[in-house]
Amino acid sequence: MNSITRHARHSQEWLPAPGLHLRDLRAGTKPTASARWAKELIGKFPSFLVIFLTLSTPLLVAQEETDANPKKPGSGLIDYLLNYLNMAGTKKSNEFVPMTQAERNRLYFKTMRNPLGFVKAGFSAGIDQANDKPEEWEQGASGYGKRFANILGQYSIQRTVTYGLASALHEDNRYFNSGKKGFWPRTGYALTSGILARHDDGSRHFSISQVGGVAAGAFIARAWLPPSQSSASDGAVSFGITMGSNAGFGIVKEYLPDLGRALAKKHKKPATGSGASSVNLRHSDQDLDWRSCTSVNLN
User: Fold this and answer.
1) Count of CB atoms within 10 A of residue 39's CB?
2) What is the model's pTM?
3) What is the DSSP-derived secondary structure letter of residue 32?
4) Are strands 87-92 and 175-177 parallel, antiparallel or unpaired?
5) Contacts of 198 (CB under 8 A, 6+ apart)
6) Parallel, antiparallel, or unpaired: how do β-strands 204-206 and 87-92 relate?
7) 190: closest CA among 98, 252, 259, 262?
């Protein structure tokens, strides 16, 4: 009987006090930096990745057709997508050509006004709003505005510092498809692309500009964030989340062109009969005469 009583008392020590919720327990015990990093990365990355792939898949199908006809309507959306992902189109690593400073300047300003960057900031701000992060910022439109401005500010600092350092050090952080064969060689290449950059000779080295830009965005933001998010460990968590998502999106960038080609091939149907005549004849200077002949035969 005594042993049962001792066991019951021991068990009660692990039960929350009446009226105490799990949210209160989480608030009372501050998780470690690594735990917060894992929780936030797992919480944010998969949902955004699903939405991203859903929105980008139609553009990838159009990419195959746009390569053959650069002036085709919709190519601007594809261009925005590739710019947001910092991809050198569908070029492979052996097609690398170093950028001039003028090209770097154009790429930077294009990135800063890319509408997909604002969409991503709005999406991330919505997640932070739902999680009441940081807790000092209120809910509603004003709280959302602060969270949106915070994310956009970090993004702008990151891009600007990366651009400045890359220009000075002649680093190229654009993603080039590996051109490798096999899952593991390609995946390994994609994961390391988050911390490597190409120099003008095409060799890959540790990317001071990319890592430095991410660190600048993560730690400078502590200056305007409230106390619950202003510590150096919070900056380290933010840095880890961004670097982790960069590595994950490296894999997306590597296999995204494959997905686009597969979907484009699936959507292409061989034309027969009168359909074949009309498709082929549009690309000829003799379209009118041939269409006339076809219509006569069909009638």
Assistant:
1) 14
2) 0.69
3) P
4) parallel
5) 96, 98, 171, 172, 174, 176, 204
6) unpaired
7) 252
- Residue-wise over 87-112: b if at least 16 C-beta within 10 A, else e? bbebbebeebeebeeeebeebbeebe
Mean pLDDT over each residue of the chain, to the nearest integer: 77
Residue (of 105, 67, 73) closest to 89 by Cα position: 67
**Length of the chain as a residue count:** 299
Give the model confidence (pLDDT) of 147-181 as tens digits. Answer: 999 999 999 999 999 999 999 999 999 999 999 99
Residue from 208, 172, 188 nearest 254 by CA? 188
Q: Is 252 exposed, middle or buried (0-12, 13-18, 19+ CB in 10 A)?
A: middle
Burial class (CB within 10 angstroms; exposed 0-12, middle 13-18, buried 19+) of 250: buried
Eight-state DSSP code of residue 274: H
pLDDT tens digits along 219-275: 999 999 999 999 999 999 999 999 999 999 999 999 988 887 777 777 665 545 444
Q: Token pair of 81, please?
A: 């997508």
134: preceding bond cis by omega (within 30 degrees): yes
